[in-house]
Design goal:
Belongs to the FAD-dependent glycerol-3-phosphate dehydrogenase family. With 499 residues, the protein is α+β, with helices and mostly antiparallel strands. 29% of the residues lie in helices and 25% in strands. The protein has three domains: 168 residues, FAD/NAD(P)-binding domain, CATH 3.50.50; 187 residues, D-Amino Acid Oxidase, Chain A, domain 2, CATH 3.30.9.10; 101 residues, Helicase, Ruva Protein, domain 3, CATH 1.10.8.870. A hairpin with a 6-residue loop joins strand 9 and strand 10. The two termini are 21 Å apart.
């Protein structure tokens, strides 16, 4: 067995918090590694509502600090990744018997002013026009702005930035054991398809396993978890576009919960989420029939079109690791705030455990975690992520970027170019390289997926399976029914790389 690789900091967990911490630390002059037992973003971080938002409904729970911080981060992230994070207008139809007009107006005023707003317009009252497809009794409402995100690609971009800073990303790699020694941790990693274990050492170990945090404590660290978590399942359905509007809708329900209807991948609407307590393996979470009924009924209270179950194109369920609070608190009312526990005195091997959190505040959490390690890693430099763009985000005007690349690659159909730019930004150059015609992209697997992109995703973005590409690196799984040729090609490519 080869000598262990030594890191300053090593992260268990390839979700948004794990890669965010790895990215932040790697940019401060630290040697960093990360392992993810499945695919990057394959858990909670690819099964969200795809929003960067302050959390308007959290104001009713008096979570003003969380909302203020999330709103400030919304501005930061819009500039960090303008290719995958873009503004989105929301319509909130008014049902007087659910929440009074003055209360909504007050909430939106706070939402506008809790943090400095630069990129997005202020909220306003609106008349709901006929083309929106809402039932006739809904004539008044409100409009406010947040942002949408490709959640899985946000994880990938942080992983790419980590690698760009010299960090190591071990995808499909499980940490099977961790032992605390004198001033360092010793870890044993098992890569997919390999029997031999790889040893590494690190000064600081970060448990960012999300819903698997407790399991990591039990099986890998073999020590008690310092906090009790409560697993909450949130489910979504994807259906053909409910209406032609490019706006999202926030629907109030009689139980006090809300449901989003969000324009998704041009031709679809994303509807969610639910809040159900969950027991069992987070990887086995799936939408329940009662959740499908709940989402369909929520839409029926607002839209004229009657959504049928057979129209559902896709669905997914993610498990959120939230704080367990004292008393009987409904799952929907649990805080989405984050915290972390730091165990170990300076000079000892430190253990950091991450609890809770949401995509919008991942960068702030990551910065706080790494800041807290200054006494353990005195050589590290200061915070840097607030003003640095993520890979592919080095542009300021989307329309200008589209014109530039349309001129550089005139052979690309408009919809294909648009998809490339919204996923890869300026890294389209690395994807397309010297391509001069569509034939240069190689075999077409369907739905606009060509061999050149598959090769790029396998070689540069850690993709291993067809599912990695179709549901996380892209969302083309919504359109591609036959994946046989893609699976065969990827299997053959993987074998040739191993030789």
């Amino acid at each position: 067995m080869s000598e262990p690789i030594d890191y300053d900091l090593f992260v268990i967990g390839g979700g948004i918090n794990g890669v965010g911490i790895a990215c932040d630390a790697s940019g401060r002059g630290l040697s960093v590694g990360l392992c993810e037992m499945h695919d990057l973003a394959s858990g909670t971080s690819s099964q969200s509502s795809k929003l960067i938002h302050g959390g308007l409904r959290y104001l009713e729970q008096y979570q003003f600090r969380l909302v203020r911080e999330a709103l400030a981060e919304r501005e930061v992230l819009l500039k960090k990744a303008p290719h995958i994070i873009t503004p989105l207008l929301f319509r909130l139809p008014h049902h007087p018997h659910l929440r009074p007009r003055w209360l909504i107006r007050l909430g939106l005023f706070l939402y506008d002013h809790l943090s400095r707003r630069v990129s997005l317009p202020a909220s306003k009252s609106v008349l709901l026009a006929e083309p929106e497809g809402l039932i006739d009794s809904l004539q008044h409402g409100f409009e406010y702005a947040d942002a949408k995100v490709d959640d899985a690609r946000l994880v990938l971009l942080n992983a790419l930035a980590t690698r760009g800073n010299g960090g190591d990303i071990h995808n499909y790699c499980r940490c099977v054991q961790a032992q605390r020694g004198d001033g360092h941790w010793r870890l044993w990693l098992q890569h997919r398809g390999q029997d031999e274990l790889q040893q590494i050492t690190c000064k600081v170990l970060v448990n960012a396993a999300g819903p698997w945090l407790q399991q990591t404590y039990d099986e890998v660290l073999q020590r008690p978890c310092p906090k009790q978590m409560r697993l909450v399942k949130g489910s979504h359905i994807v259906v053909p576009r409910l209406n032609a509007s490019d706006k999202a809708y926030l629907l109030q329900n009689t139980d006090g919960r809300i449901v989003f209807v969000i324009p998704y991948q041009q031709h679809y609407s994303l509807i969610g989420t639910t809040d159900e307590d969950y027991q069992g393996d987070p990887a086995a979470a799936c939408i329940a029939e009662v959740e499908i009924d709940y989402l369909i009924q929520s839409v029926a209270r607002y839209f004229k079109r009657r959504l049928r179950r057979e129209e559902i194109v896709s669905h997914y369920a993610g498990v959120r690791p939230l704080f367990a609070t004292q008393g009987q608190v409904a799952a929907a009312e649990l805080s989405r705030d984050y915290s972390f526990e730091l165990d170990g005195e300076p000079g000892q091997a430190a253990l950091v455990s991450v609890f809770g959190g949401k995509i919008t505040t991942y960068r702030k959490l990551s910065e706080a975690v790494v800041d807290s390690l200054a006494a353990y890693l005195p050589s590290m430099t200061g915070a840097w992520t607030a003003s640095t763009v993520l890979p592919g985000g080095d542009f300021t005007d989307v329309a200008e970027l589209q014109r530039e690349f349309a001129g550089r690659y005139p052979f690309l159909p408009d919809d294909l170019l648009q998809r490339y730019l919204s996923a890869y930004g300026t890294r389209v150059v690395e994807l397309l390289q010297a391509s001069r015609c569509l034939d240069d992209l190689g075999e077409h697997f369907g739905a606009g997926l060509y061999r050149r992109e598959v090769d790029y995703l396998m070689q540069q973005e850690w993709a291993v399976t067809a599912q990695d590409i179709l549901w996380r690196r892209t969302k083309l799984g919504l359109q591609m029914s036959d994946t046989t040729s893609l699976e065969n090609y990827m299997a053959a490519s993987s074998m040739s790389l191993k030789r």
